[in-house]
Write a structure and sequence with these properties.
about 100 residues, alpha+beta, 3-stranded antiparallel β-sheet, 2 helices, 3 strands, rod-shaped
């Protein structure tokens, strides 16, 4: 199985933003010379502080939207877990400090 086939057969997550690239092709006889520019869906993402753009086929857009939503959901879940961890740590430290103060008396 190729990497593409493996990715296509399972739900994956993506980080980034779905954007639309608009451009004129430069052909004098094309509709974009006077009218609306060509539009191409793309995924914008960053790697090592550099923005990258991956152009998409129209048929890929729904899958990319779902993968972006999965990333947002998992990130929100991780944030909730991290905040719960901070709360638990804070409570444990406060209990231990109170216990230490009681034992010094």
């Amino acid at each position: 199985m190729t990497k593409t086939a493996q990715i296509g057969s399972r739900a994956f997550v993506l980080r980034g933003s779905l954007i639309v690239l608009k451009r004129r092709c430069g052909k004098a006889t094309c509709h974009c010379a006077e009218g609306e520019p060509h539009q191409t869906p793309a995924l914008s993402y960053s790697v090592a502080s550099a923005t990258k753009i991956l152009t998409l086929r129209q048929k890929d857009v729904r899958e990319v939207e779902a993968a972006l939503a999965r990333y947002a959901s998992r990130r929100a879940e991780l944030e909730r877990e991290a905040l719960a961890g901070i709360t638990a740590l804070r409570q444990r430290i406060e209990r231990e400090k109170a216990s230490e103060r009681r034992s010094r008396r």
